[in-house]
Specification:
Layout (H helix, E strand, L loop, with lengths): L4 E6 L5 H10 L3 E4 L1 H9 L5 E2 L1 H4 L14 H8 L5 H10 L6 E5 L15 H11 L5 E3 L5 H11 L4 H26 L15 E6 L11 E5 L41 H14 L9 E6 L2 E7 L3 H11 L7 E5 L5 H7 L4 E6 L4 H7 L6 E4 L10 E6 L2 E6 L11 E4 L8 H13 L7 E4 L4 E5 L5 H12 L7 E4 L7 H9 L3 E4 L6 H11 L2 E4 L8
Parallel strand pairs: 1-2, 1-4, 2-3, 4-5, 10-11, 11-12, 18-19, 19-20
Antiparallel strand pairs: 6-7, 8-9, 8-10, 13-14, 15-20, 16-17, 16-18
Helix pairs in contact: 6-8, 10-11, 11-12, 14-15, 15-16
Amino acid sequence: MRIRRALLSVSEKIGIVELGRGLVELGVRLLSTGGTARALEAAGVPVTPVEEVTGWGEMLGGRVKTLHPAVHAAILARREVASDLEELRRAGVEPVDLVAVNLYPFLEAPSLEQIDIGGPALLRAAAKNWPSVIVLSDPAQYGPVLEALRSAGDLAPGERRRLAAAAFRHVAVYDAAVAGWLEPPAAEELPAELPFGLRKRADLRYGENPHQRAALYVEARPRGATAGKAAPGGEPGDAAAARPAPSLAEAEPLQGKPLSYNNLQDAQAAWRLVREFDGSGRPAAAAIKHATPCGVALGGTPAEAFARARDADPVSIFGGVVALNRAVDAATADALAGIFLEVVVAPGFEPAALERLRRKRNLRLIALDPAGPVTAPFELRPIAGGALLQEADLAPVEPAAWRLAAGRPLPDGSPLLADLEFAWRVVRHARSNAIVVAREGRTLGIGAGQVNRIDAALQALERAGEAARGAVLASDGFFPFGDVAQAAARAGIAAIVEPGGSIRDEESIRACEEAGITLYFTGVRHFRH
């Protein structure tokens, strides 16, 4: 099908002059609006203003320009339907065969006036009539389409359809961003409809395994000014390079290779875990391997916190991801450099730390703003034919609300009570079934991802070894039998925190009473599948 007439109406002018000139060289006549027409005219590209076709100038301060039958009928007329063409002929309307539109920059400057109406209407009309109309919604499409028109005079039906699908996706993402700006989803309810607007930020090398494709997407939502970022593999020498990114999805490594799918998953898990301890007033470090904690600790300094987390499981941390809730200083950098790690996430990196870590060329360093989101308020997981949506597990940790089930109560300020709270904060981040053994603000053993609770407990206690004597134990779910409490008693555990609620709770209570173990029930479960 020969392209005779095109409508160009864009907010972002990148590539529009080249597109217009290329179309004119192919014998296409151009129809355009406002600033686009002026840009084409200034470049010497012949163009007809849209008002000459509609007979109306812009109205309502530019709110109405293309919403007219002379424009939309020209786009929507089906070329294979004789009655459509006859109607156009009687009305004196000439068909439009190509539409190039991009939308008002609402994401960059959100306001009512930046909500585009005519642009999405043009894109939807052209995309609906894709067998007859080529629709371009992205400047990146201009060059390939021009080349195809030059070489073949038209696009294959499959390519036309692909461009139409891209246009509908583009409008859907735009509409989702506007809806989220007008009324963000309320935290107390799950939305009846879920418009999900994501834009691809980067293709990743692969997914969890080399045979799986993967990409990183970011939410298409209005944003304020973002922090400065360094390019992947760049030199982290200046202050701007160390500025924190607003979120993990927007972050660029200050140095090292591009982030992989697994790196991003583990970095998210590590950052979310370490931020549990923002209210502690102490530096904290968390080491993650395969989305599971392997060492978590508090310390007097960031370097001490990292060293204690590393020593909690010096085998598993190898090749892992580490997050800290304090900026990395020179001493911490020296400790980090002593072991092979994939990623380090922190609120910032002091210049001396960056200087020391330059020697680890492949180590990714990510600076994240502590004021940014720790996690999304909702978690979405696809299943065949649909998706599951749940609130993120952000239940507050409230030791004062725990119920004493066995043993002596622990007074406020008790080191054992502090360790129970520490272990309870960690266990909610381990895969179910999960058990954490901890002492003095450090994990000693973690059992996670097991299909029964006793195996998770035995794994955690074995890793803790003799250090379990006098330590505490946390469980993300209740004890279905008394076996976990009995194993804890044999290992010398001093106190346990778990949800309670099993029909056999009495078995665990009795085992703890006999062993002199303090047992608290939280009434809150933290399964993490």
